[in-house]
Amino acid sequence: MTDIQKQSSDQKRTPDLYVHTKIVSGTSDRIGARIGCGFLHSDGVGVNIILDATPHVNPFSGQIELVAFAPKD
User: Fold this and answer.
1) What whole-number distance in Å separates Cα of residue 69 and Cα of residue 51?
2) What pTM did the predictor assign?
């Protein structure tokens, strides 16, 4: 069991960010489905991102583009 799995099983935290795919379609980009969440490190430097799905790879650049938003209250 990794440290992340142990932490998530020991205590439930609200995600600091929700992760969405970015969909490139011709001349415009749009935000796609939510595919995971992120948790800020306690020291404020870095984020653990947990993906529940595999994002689409852009066939032109070979990159995976993710967009993260803070949860709405």
Assistant:
1) 14
2) 0.65
CA–CA separation, 68 and 22 (whole Å): 10
Beta bridge partners of 39: 48
Q: List the strands of the sheet with 28-40, edge to edge.
A: 47-51, 28-40, 17-25, 66-69
Residue 49 burial (10 A CB sphere; 0-12, 13-18, 19+) = middle
pLDDT tens for residues 16-62? 999 988 877 777 888 888 999 999 998 888 889 999 988 777 777 77
Residue 48 to residue 24: CA distance in whole angstroms: 25
* Residues found in the chain: 73
